[in-house]
Batch of 2 targets.
Target 1
Amino acid sequence: MPTRIADLHIAREELLPTPNELRAEVPVSEAQAQVVARARQTVRDIVRGDDDRLLVVVGPCSIHDSAAAIEYARRLREVAPRFDDALFLVMRVYFEKPRTRLGWKGMIYDPDLDGRGDLHKGLLKARGLLVECARLGVPAASEILDLVTPQYYAELLSWGAIGARTTESPLHRQMASALSAPLGFKNPTSGKLQTAVDAIVVAAQSHRFPSISLDGRAMVITTTGNADCHLILRGGDAGPNFDAASVEAAVAALQAADLPGRVMIDCSHANSRSDYRRQPQVAAEIGAQIAAGSRHILGVMLESHLVEGKQALTADLSALQYGQSITDGCIGWEATVRVLEQLADAVRSGRRRRIGQNQPT
Ligand SMILES: O=C[C@H](O)[C@H](O)COP(=O)(O)O
Ligand SMILES: C=C(OP(=O)(O)O)C(=O)O
């Protein structure tokens, strides 16, 4: 018997459809592609400071129920025109969750919420939901965690994130250099800003690395680099980093690397000390900086769902409450609208203040 040295820890192997096959099953129309392309251009303009509105990435911590996600998207579409002069709303449509230890890994990995891990179904549902968002005219945002799955859906994103746990990963940085959407790098969970600043510099460069083709073959791609990456302050081990002094420190770190001194601030995660009820207060303090005329804040992130709080995922799926998160706690819909109103007022006040002081708007 030959000595077995391969696949000692593989229990099962199953084929997935190729990205092209999945794209054919859930196609994107020209009208939907235009929604994505237009939203990306607006996000790009905001990131570069050519559009003085605030980018607001808002929505559930994770999607586990397509119906609730579509209801959320509809509500966002309904309120968006009220804020259009001040805010550009992009919905969090997050399918892949990086866990601190163990836990549900998101809709792509486990769409049936039962641990079976039907990735084919997960990819179909994820892509279907992104197409539906585009059909509704709602720009979508997601964290890109896996290195293979983006080929199945990333062309539908208007904004992407590399999370706190992967900002230091060279593989995620080079993957970011390939992505077509503008993208934020979270500061790592340690809170060390330089890691995310380095990531932005790396992602802007061209890289050559192995990937999977749309026909499902191994290939080498050469990227041109993604020039539309920015920093997201999400707090860290030492506590929050949304206050004016932290923003100033982040701006200095970016400028020292010859990058524009502009950041997005996450109101959740370590900035809320993982308590969703603190998000409105964090947003209010960010709003105060914007109202005082700061142009350093390009965007804000909120974890928000139809119903506030979070619930445990158990084997009894019938016990799940519709519209409530099964990962991080979220603010509810009414609180979300109030936060959006306050942020929009802050943007308008900041504009007036800069005009009064003859500063560039
Ligand atoms: O936003 C999501 C969570 O904060 C992240 O996935 C980590 O979650 P966990 O610490 O509950 O695993
Ligand atoms: C996982 C997330 O955040 P972070 O990477 O900051 O923990 C998230 O935004 O869903």
Target 2
Amino acid sequence: MALHVIRHPLVQHKLGLMRDQAISTKSFRELANELGNLLTYEATKDFELEPTRMTSWNGDSIQVERIKGKKVTVVPILRAGIGMLDGVLNLIPSAKVSVVGLYRDEETLEPVSYFEKFAGSMDERLALVLDPMLATGGSMIATLDLLKKEGCTRIRVLVLVAAPEGVEKVLDAHPDVDIYTASQDDRLNEHGYILPGLGDAGDKIFGTR
Ligand SMILES: O=P(O)(O)OC[C@H]1O[C@H](OP(=O)(O)OP(=O)(O)O)[C@H](O)[C@@H]1O
Ligand SMILES: O=c1cc[nH]c(=O)[nH]1
Ligand SMILES: [Mg+2]
């Protein structure tokens, strides 16, 4: 469907902090979760509400609103997507977690799949796919292919930083998907890394750089 770049000042400020070469693992992790949280806020703003009744503090019966029967699965792409997971689940604690394991071959830049475990009733769920980085788009397209094979029809992608090349490829392959990001950056370098980017997000989150 579309690319949504979230220009909210908190999002832009936190993303800016993540770009610092001297950032600690602790700060990088915290910010990845905080941005996951803020992107979730944006990606869920059209959720439907329905009225429901409850007994309030003084015993009165009152009408309140609640989210209407929305089944959600959150899908972190291993490893780096785990770095956003807590931030997303903080806002949607009832979501089921599905996991897709993929790494990008360093030479070919092609995604290599090594794990998948999906929640039940995927055809009834809205899927929120998490990965800090959308570079060539190969890993995201492979994930979206898997989710559709499982029956998913409603999918939103949450990435901290996206490269224009990858966004174009993902939306060409999956035009029904919405992508929420804090930034569409300039381009990919000759090794497929996003510029200005964040470097290797998985290594920074897992402390393996
Ligand atoms: O758009 P692409 O060109 O496919 O690249 C993006 C992918 O690369 C990174 O994962 P990586 O392969 O480094 O695995 P990791 O999360 O285990 O570090 C990143 O987290 C994405 O999953
Ligand atoms: O810039 C990039 C590209 C792929 N994976 C990352 O972690 N960073
Ligand atoms: Mg990595």
